[in-house]
Amino acid sequence: MAAYIVVDSKIIDAEQQTLYREIAAPIVAKFGGEYLARGGKLSVKEHLLGTPARLVIVKFPSFEVAEAFYHSAEYQAALAVSDKAAQRTFSIVDGV
User: Fold this and answer.
1) Residues 61 and 32: beta-carbon distance below 8 Å
2) DSSP element (H, E) containing 2
């Protein structure tokens, strides 16, 4: 069953964000991930926990693969750049 990474982020350094995207995209691909949404137009209809700033949704083959992606040495190294680029909430959710 597919799983999804959902990231809500507020960009704090656009240059670092560009670098992070360049580093992360090949790692996502290596783990069979597919970007479904990547910061496009957003229309929030309801919110209780704060308005999302920028959403990214990535589909992975399974929850276990999504977890392996996040915990991989390659992605953990990419997080050093991400930490300079944005404040974010990163979640992994099982598909139905």
Assistant:
1) yes
2) none
What's 13's domain CATH number?
Answer: 3.30.70.100
DSSP per-residue string spanning 32-91: T-EEEEES--------SS----EEEEEEES-HHHHHHHHHSHHHHHHHHHHHHHEEEEEE
Q: How far apart are CA 85 and CA 82, in angstroms?
A: 5
pLDDT for 59-75, tens place per residue?
999 999 999 999 999 99
When divided into structural domains, the chain yields a total of 1
Give kind and range of the element (H or E) at residue 26.
helix 14-30
The percent of residues above 90 in pLDDT, for the chain, comes to 82
Q: What are 73's two structure tokens?
A: 């040495």
